[in-house]
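Hi there,

I know you've been waiting on this one. I reran it after we fixed the sequence typo, so this is the corrected version. Both the input and the resulting structure follow.
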Amino acid sequence: MLLQISVDDFKLISASCELRYEEACLLFDRTGQICHEAKSNFTNCEVVSALPNQTILKAKEGNLFVELKQCRVTTTSPDSPLQAYADVCKKFFDSVTDNLQLKVFGRVGLRVVFRKRYDELAEAKAALNSLKLLSIPKTERFGAASEPREMIFKWEGTEVGAMLRLSAELGKIDVVLPPELEMEQSEIHKSTTGLLLDVDYYTVAPVEKSQWDAAAWIPRSLRTIKKQSDDVLGT
């Protein structure tokens, strides 16, 4: 049975935007200033880890990373159009690029993950295989199952590229809480079953800092991702 599935059936559960650049040795001198500006720009911002070649900050708006050859902003609670998230990225990236005196990015990437929940893993697998994205006959492969649980596609041109992954997954969360919290429940166990749509959309050609704006590029890229993903799901 062919199921009709679109991106609108999925919930956006995480986003990560990353800039890659040539080795920025000013990181060793300017990390303190970057952290100071992050604390001023973001809510409850704190330094999680500070190493010579990598600093990690955590704020209400997301997790911030700055390294010798890349920086990124990640969140597991993104707004649907990614406009608020994009504004956070702009503030952080402007701080990093100004302090590290970066002029060109070797790669700019936006990775987003969507989930469509199902009650059972078998339902998620059935939904994945109903999309008819592969034309190979259904037969046992490598001594395993006859139907794949994951499909990965990649497209790349001279300016941009994208990798799309569809996966039927059963996720488990197991948390043991510290006794000093004196919670009624000392442990939390949760299972999440669903179909994941994971898309990494990125630039291939170098990007001039002066010609790139996170606040505009991220929401526009999300719209492109959703439109093109819908085309793939409807194949």
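Quick highlight: Residues 9-233 form one domain.

Best,
R. S.
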